[in-house]
Write a structure and sequence with these properties.
The protein has two helices and three strands. The chain is of the alpha+beta class. It has a three-stranded antiparallel β-sheet with strand order 2-1-3, with no helix packed on it. The protein starts with a strand and ends with a helix. The mean pLDDT is about 90.
């Protein structure tokens, strides 16, 4: 399973997601502002994925 970075074009917050298509991501609401304006930015690096699960950086 790969993780991607996405950004809300409304509020600018970034999130990690397993969704890999912009069309599917547009159906999701931003956890911060509730708008449906999320856009994929690119894949997360190995160190970013590790920090998600292990609390490191």
């Amino acid at each position: 399973m790969s993780y991607n970075r996405c950004i809300c074009e409304k509020c600018g917050n970034q999130y990690a997601t397993v969704i890999d298509k912009d069309e599917d991501l547009l159906k999701e609401k931003c956890p911060n502002c509730g708008e449906m304006q999320l856009k994929l930015v690119g894949p997360l690096s190995v160190s970013e994925v590790n920090s998600l699960f292990y609390g490191g950086g």
